Amino acid sequence: MKSISRNALFFAIVLLFGVTLSAQDEDNQSTPASHWVKQQAMTPDYRFEIAVTNGNESEGYGSLTEWDGIKVINRHTDKATFIAGKAGGNLYVANDALLSLIDANFDGFPDLQIRAFDGGAGPNSVDYFYLYDPKTKTFKFDEQLSNFSQIGINVRTKSITSAYRDGCCHHVEETYRYFSGVLTLVENWDERLVFDSNMIETTVCKLKKRKMRCKTKTREYSE
Q: What's 27's DSSP letter?
């Protein structure tokens, strides 16, 4: 009975004081091995810091760098909000330039783009995106954009491209656009080497009248 009572007391304390962390507790959010690095990117309302593990500002470019949290600091009040997250690798960017600003969903507000994974031996790099919500004045993780490899965002044409390589002989590029707030595939380019026939097969699909229309062409492979 004593054990049950102690467990009940423990959970009561957890519920009372909360298992979520206060936004003002920013100094305790990074892991013991990490240190906060002020980012170059900022908006008129916010500045940003990232908890970086391994490496430092002088050796950030090309070194093994991991990060485990973002601190969003209101430039008017100095109030800080912590965003959980973790990624890293040989990111090939200075530690104070891990985060950049871009209007990723074309709503007129700058969003956060942060280097996540370098893709290893291949080019399939990934960035994480946190979209600004003007109603709540917070940055929210966007899973769909963050799953794209080699992402490219064209603010002028309001289009997003994603490309990846599947081994030596298969390459894909996709183009997306937002329709009523929904990110939609509008074009797909797929090229592969068909080893059995020694032919290169290229398929292009485009969204027309709400359906993807595809055409495939082949040509002989020559080294």
A: G
Percent of the chain's residues with pLDDT above 90:
57
DSSP letter at 21 equals: P
> What secondary structure does DSSP assign to 43-85, as a single string?
-SSEEEEEEEESS-TTT-TTSEEEEEEEEEEETTT--EEEE--
Which element (helix H / strand E) includes 222?
A: none
Q: Is the pLDDT of residue 153 over 50?
A: yes
CA–CA separation, 200 and 197 (whole Å): 9
Name which of 9-23, 36-50, 171-185, 206-220 the model is least confident about. 9-23
Whole-number Å distance between alpha carbons of 1 and 66: 46
- Residues contacting residue 103 through CB under 8 Å, at least 6 positions apart: 109, 110, 111, 155
| Distance separating alpha carbons of residues 107 and 136, to the nearest angstrom | 15
User: What tokens appear for 222 in the block?
Assistant: 């020559």
**AA letter at 19:** V
d(CA 98, CA 116): 9
